[in-house]
Amino acid sequence: MFTGIIEEVGAVVSVKRGRASSVLTIAGDKVLEDTRLGDSIAVNGVCLTVMARSGMSFSADVMHETLIRSTLGALKPKDSINLERAMPADGRFGGHIVSGHIDGCGTISEIRKDDNAIWYAIRADAGLMRYIVEKGSIAIDGISLTVATVSSQGFSVSIIPHTASMTTLSQRKVGDAVNLETDIIGKYVERLINFRGDTPTNSQPASTKTSTGKNTITTEFLMKNGF
């Protein structure tokens, strides 16, 4: 699990492309201080496993599913990327719950300054927008941000200059694709409400179904069970 608080901006050293996968070698500093083989590092918000280390760089396999779901397939040597180590059990939770599992990509449609703030408007398809709510959390290229506004075709975030300067957002321009991970809670709630399994399990109490199989989960049921 990650928090969306970027530790440093690293750089792509090399990309070794396979038939439907690739191996990324990435240069970093802070994220490699105590990193061992098998550890997780979020690269532009995508959770990758360190499979090799050499000096101040590490390598990670990127499978086909990850390439088609994220922007990692477009990376090339010298590209800058956001890096964050997995959150330690005794760490400070400065952002929000970020799994490192990208839901899809969005496109920057506008960048504008507003006094000391910078606004980024992101276009995203309806499959992603259903999970994005005003004042909710969103991870853009692994950066924990608060959704400022929502429309039918996208959303906007407003950030301070420090966030832009300490991440790759300062290098982004209109038309660039970005990785998006929506708030995990909404996805679980939707799955629970819409579940249509025929056989109740420990995670799907029989009391939530009528004799006809209709789901009877209510707001009161969710509140009673901690949602």
Explain the overall architecture:
The structure is a single chain. With 227 residues, the protein is mainly β. It has 3 domains: 8-85, Elongation Factor Tu (Ef-tu), domain 3 (Beta Barrel); 104-183, Elongation Factor Tu (Ef-tu), domain 3; 195-224, no CATH class. The chain has 5 helices and 13 strands. It has helices spanning 64-69, 126-129, 161-165, 184-194, 219-224, and strands at residues 8-17, 22-27, 40-43, 46-49, 52-54, 57-62, 80-85, 104-114, 117-123, 137-140, 143-150, 154-159, 177-182. A 7-stranded antiparallel β-sheet has the order 4-3-7-1-2-6-5. Strands 8-9-12-11-10-13 form a 6-stranded antiparallel barrel. The two termini are 20 Å apart. Residues 199-207 have low confidence and may be disordered.
